[in-house]
Amino acid sequence: MKTIKIGLMGLGNIGTGTYKLLEMNRRQIESAAGAHISIDKIFEKDVEKDRGISVDPSKFTQDPDSILKDPGTDIVIELLGGIQPATDFMLEAMNNKKHVVTANKAAIAASFDKLSKCSEENGVAFRFEASTGGGIPILNAITTALQANEFHEVLGIVNGTTNYILTQMSDFGLGYEDALKSAQAKGFAEADPTADVEGSDSANKLTILMALMFGKYVKPEDIPTEGISKITKAQIEEAKASGCRIKLLASARIKDGKLEYGVEPVVLKNDHPLAGVGNEFNAIFVSGNAVGDLMFYGKGAGPLPTASAVLGDVIQIARASKTIGGE
Length: 327
Ligand code: HSE
Description:
Elements: E1 2-9, H1 13-24, H2 26-33, E2 35-43, E3 60-61, H3 65-68, E4 75-78, H4 86-95, E5 99-102, H5 105-110, H6 112-122, E6 126-127, H7 138-143, E7 151-157, H8 160-172, H9 176-185, H10 194-197, H11 200-214, H12 233-241, E8 244-255, E9 258-269, E10 281-288, E11 292-299, H13 303-320
Parallel strand pairs: 1-2, 1-4, 2-3, 4-5, 5-6
Antiparallel strand pairs: 7-8, 7-10, 8-9, 10-11
Helix pairs in contact: 1-13, 2-13, 4-6, 8-9
Bound molecules: L-homoserine.
L-homoserine is lined by residues 134, 159-161, 188-190, 196, 201, 300-301.
């Protein structure tokens, strides 16, 4: 069997989850990929931290070029987060004919066209299932099985941290700060949770969904966005008393030939299908002109669900590409 060599950039929550999942399900993953998968190098500054995994220290590198310029690297998994230097690293990897897998919604949303064009020009894969909906294979679904549809709407809960906070405040009586701390401890939140609570993480994901579903790139900063940081306990209790829950929704629809979009907290009746989506779970409705309405539901944040999407992308690249890994 051939061996696919991976350069992993970032050993934070998702990088560690990816490393763990590969160890946990190696036989299943390699059988699906038709190749041995070897994480050869890890670009990570913090080599001392106890992550609950055993990593050969010689794999660590502080030099991005030792991955990006190494002719032996087949796939770069970028899990650094943040727009830069992650975007430059991904462009450099693709320009050096390496396939790229990332979970980095901020970087993709900021430079969707540039990154997509770079992958096309270099004839390499650029896959980012983990960027939207965590473990839910929403991007695979809309770009493969549902491609025969014209889409007219997408609506959903696409941020696990805020959904976790709202659920904990509403159903378990936690205060905002305690709920946020708990979301951070569970590895749901961004390094800077402002992106979660102010809605920009949801806007990044909506940018990606709109680009893939409607073929229209809308900059995340052009999406009207309101987060949950101003929602008070009193508002949550008031909603609860009237048989409702507050949820942070991202939505886009074609109306009178125009695309309308936004991210905002919405008061939903308890019998609305999205009202029962709790904690770090995400749920995304899509509506297509042939298939009708579909709802995708699952864990939208957290190390292992996100790693499931990352390694799913690695497997798909391995299966599609006969030219990597050698024999
Ligand atoms: N911080 C993100 C969330 C991680 O809570 O949804 C998954 O994209």
